[in-house]
Design brief:
single chain, 106 residues, 75% helix
Length: 106
C-alpha cells in the first residue's frame, strides 16, 4: 500500500494543505471500507486504520482549521486509535499507548 507519509506534509519545506489531508483521509477510509467488506488481509486493514488515525490526528492539530472540523477530526482520531488498539496483537499495544499519550501531551 502506497500512501503519503503525514509527517512529510508537516515539514517546513512544504506548506500544510488541509484540503490534501482531508482528501487523503477520505480516500483511505474508502479503501478501508472496501478491504473490510471483502474480508481481505487483516494486517493491511490494520495498517490502513493506523494511517487514517495519523492523518486525522494531524488535521486535529492544525491551528488554522475551523474549530468544528478540528474537534471532529480529534474525535475520529480517537475512534480510529481505539479500533487499531483492539486489532493489534498484544505485544504492540504498549507502543500504541505510548504513542497516543505522547501525542496528547503536545
Amino acid at each position: 500500500m502506497n500512501s503519503i507519509n503525514p509527517e512529510l506534509l508537516l515539514s517546513p519545506e512544504y506548506p500544510v494543505q488541509p484540503e490534501l489531508l482531508v482528501s487523503a483521509v477520505l480516500h483511505l477510509m474508502s479503501h478501508y471500507t472496501v478491504n473490510s467488506a471483502q474480508n481481505e488481509d487483516a494486517g493491511s486493514c490494520l495498517k490502513l486504520a493506523s494511517v487514517i488515525e495519523r492523518h486525522l490526528k494531524i488535521l486535529a492539530d492544525l491551528p488554522n482549521l475551523a474549530p468544528v472540523l478540528r474537534a471532529t477530526c480529534q474525535q475520529l482520531s480517537e475512534h480510529w486509535a481505539d479500533l487499531v488498539e483492539r486489532k493489534l496483537p498484544q505485544q504492540n499495544k504498549l507502543s500504541l499507548l505510548l504513542r497516543l499519550v505522547a501525542g496528547r501531551k503536545q
